[in-house]
Design a protein that fits this description.
The protein is mainly β. It is built from no helices and 13 strands.
Amino acid sequence: MAIVEELIRVEDSGNLSFGNYELAAKQKVDEFVYEGDLYKVKTYKSMTKMEKNGMFLYESVPGTTVHELHASGNGLSLIVEGNEDVQITIGLEDDTEYTVFIDDVNVGKMKTNLGGKLNLSIELECKNSIKLKVIK
């Protein structure tokens, strides 16, 4: 996989890819329109963050590249790429239970907090990328 040089793009599959964990300085795209929604991306080595219509959707510390983000009413799926272990926060529905899959392995159920955030720690150092799926 490769970083997203343009910071955010629509793939041939129709899904979004975004982020560049190789940047030394923060860069952002403020108004990326996709399927009628407005996306904002900030990314660099230390952090990657995405908002959809002004609402929190994704954040990683340190920065990552996300490939093939597909979000629906039942959850989301994506591929996360990075060069070290990462803490990921995903914006979902408030106070809702989700089943989490990492590389197609069910790692259990997790519940979002009252703000709808789900926090995950992902080991990327040995693999460089993982598939993440979160289903309601």
